[in-house]
Write a structure and sequence with these properties.
It is built from 11 helices and 8 strands. It is mostly helical and about 475 residues long. The strands form 4 sheets. Strands 1-2 form a two-stranded antiparallel ribbon. A two-stranded antiparallel sheet has the order 3-4. The longest helix has about 100 residues.
Length: about 475
Amino acid sequence: MQLRETLVNQRTEIEVLQSRIHRSEDAIFAEFCRNLGVENIREYEEKHLKELQRRAERSLEISALKAKLENQLEYEKSRNLRSRLEQLEGDIREHSEALEQVREEEAQLKERVQGIRQEIAKLEKDRAGKKEAFDDKEVRVVEFKKRQQTLAGEIGDLQKQITYHEGQVEQLHARRHALYMDAKLEGISIPFTHGSLEDVSEADSQDNEDSMEVEDSSQEMQEVYEREENLHVDFSGVPRKLRAMSATEQKAQHQQFLQDINKRQLELEKMDPNMKAAAHFKNVQARFKKTAEACSAARQDALTADRAFKEVAEKRSRLFMDAFDRISGAIDHVYKELTASADHPGGTAYLSVDNHDEPYLGGVKFTAMPANKRFRDMEQLSGGEKTVAALALLLSVQRYKPSPFCVLDEIDAALDKANVARVTRYLKQHCDQLQFIVISLNNRFFEHSDSLIGIMVDVDEQCSKPLTLDLSAFPE
């Protein structure tokens, strides 16, 4: 059985090679055949050989006739029949001329055949050189596409870092704005080398939620932050001693300043100020504090929600790219195994994403190049080539998230004998890692299976019954 399969495979390969040779000859001699008015070079060679054979046969006939006439001439000479001899000599001359003409035509045809063969050899050499150059360029195209995919991933990582740092800058802007507003409301004087606290203001907003839009509010805050960028605090009045303090010393000094402020506030309270003004100020201060706390809480909630959203988006992108990278890394190896043959290591397959920033929002492009074929879109592949490509993608996904078994239903519908043999070989090599359940009527799958399960009709009971056969006990 194994010898029979080997012979079938060899015959299939011979037929494929013969078909490739015929296609190459048709492509090379297309213009030559059109000039001669023949369909292909094989038809020309067949007609030419028949013509040579016919002329050779004609030459043999003339030679035989000449010999016959010479014999008759000798015979007639022996009988002294002069008139008959002259007639025969005339026939000999006529046939000799015809024979010489045939030989000249034969020499011309041989010369033309030699020239054609030399032209064929030259064209074959040119075709081999051009094919080698094309294969090199095709390999470079695949390498450039893989490099492009790697660079796109690096760009995505850099964009994530930029987004993170922009968030940090946004938080610092918010803290600076809050300090400026507190100083302005409490009447604290801050020296500036450029600008003043009069340039500090809140973003215009309304309490009506129906008229509030997040995008407009964000734009207004950006304008406020841009105005505050032009404010330059004058630190020349800060004593050098304070500027030279460490962080711990600055914190202790800050506590000392707060104690001094509280002490001065107590002294002011003992001076019996206008109680109504103080009460009014406290009410305003309480309202401002409440509003500031609500604003700060809302801003903090927005930042928290934004961080949570970015974490979820980053996790989503990380999980997607992890699955994509592992499947993309395995699909080329699987596709090569499914398309490899004795004279070729197999085709090439790879995946690429449409949206590199948020890959889960775009599509994934699957490109497959069968062995000895040029690059084409997936839609232009044959049914068998599409089936092999789909199997490679399915088995690559299985490697990322393995399942206990895999059901393959009628996968050989569009496959020829050679591709069926490659698929069965792959399934047999990997059946120890994954159990394959194949639904098929192809004998090739039956021969390489561990067990068979069939369905029959039980006429007596009018129902279906399964039949099982364990093939593990039989040698292949």
